[in-house]
Amino acid sequence: MSDLALGLIGIPLVLILIFLRIPIGIAMFGVGIVGTWLVTGSFNPLLGQFKNLTYSTYASYSLSVVPLFLLMGQFATLGGLSAGLFNAAAAWLGHKRGGVAMAAIGASAGFGAICGSSLATAATMGQVALPELKKYGYSGALATGAVAAGGTLGILIPPSIILVIFAVLTEQNIAKLFMGAFAPGVLAAIGYIIVIAIYVRVQPDSGGVRERMPYGQRFRELFRTWPVLAIFILVIGGIYAGIFTPTEAAAIGAAGTFVIALSARSLDRKAIVQACLATASSTAMIFLIVLGAAALNSFLALSQVPQVMAAWVGEQGFNPWLVMILVLIFYLVMGCVMDSLSMILLTVPIIYPMMTVLDFGLTPDEFGIWFGIIVLIVVEVGLITPPVGMNLFIIHSMSPGTRLSETYRGVLPFVVSDIVRTAILVAFPPITLWLVWMLY
Fold first, then answer.
1. What pTM was estimated for this model as a whole?
2. Residues in contact with 159: Cβ distance below 8 Å, sequence separation at least 6, in sequence order
């Protein structure tokens, strides 16, 4: 059997192992190691991989961003920043029809700006927003659908763990990717708010309103969100201005959220230990998958699969936009059955080289940023797409009175909004790239 055939067999084999409930990192690592042995026909490269692969993977300076951003999200949660954001948004929007659900979207966007994890954003905002939505008579479908959709903003609005991983895989600039994600993130939040406005007019009984608050109280609630604004300006503003590297900004952000949580008197020794353990657990899970992906990618590189596929696509003269649409449909379908991190690590090393040979009228750096954001958005849609959207299960578990079928029905309008937004960003790359062009 040829090396290329071995590589092509390896990809579906990984998927089969994942569907058999083998841990994703172990499935990729096992196929990568065995595949390397079969391609080289010797144990020496295999032993070399065991010796060097782990160190070379984990010694990546860029990957040190991951635990720091995760720790920042943990301290932000303990500091009660999510509740402050929701209260401020509800003070300004709650008296409007669908306003409490819109406030959940706005608060999710704000929390995503200091968290970087979709699942953490969904879980945190679910604890804060779902009781309020239930209190004001929102249907289970709209309440769970809105909070699940809002959670996806956690990985789109910078900082984003998934964008860091994409940058490492494709050797892109993390700061530029964060800049590229800003406008699509704002567009996503606006799109979700429009969906809610339409939803409550089509189904008037699906949501109630809060009492109108006086402007003095609104400004007081808004002022209480200053820690979030301060952290966002310090971290993301510092990256955009070139004052900090992403790793330095993540460290400063983690320290800043720690101080805020400490000043809010929500930290004791037990809480600090829990935050550190949760960060360590999430980091270990991510890094195991990264190691498995490194082993699999090494095997695929030896078998020449990415190179051959890229050359074949370039020789066929396919319409670049048709290929892009097919790739996005593939990601959308895969997102229904796989988690976002695993999908990025498994597919990007194969698909990205194939896409770079096509002409989209962009420079290589511009294409890398634009394609990364588009992929991130489609992966984000997978988090709320039935039947296996992870955010849906998290939010449903926090709303026991709501049937899962209601949650599925409630989230579908938000999925439509995501698809429309993806089409707009594919058709108009400058929406993604304008901030990068302005600052670089």
1. 0.87
2. 65, 69, 72, 113, 114, 116, 178, 235, 236, 246, 249, 250, 253
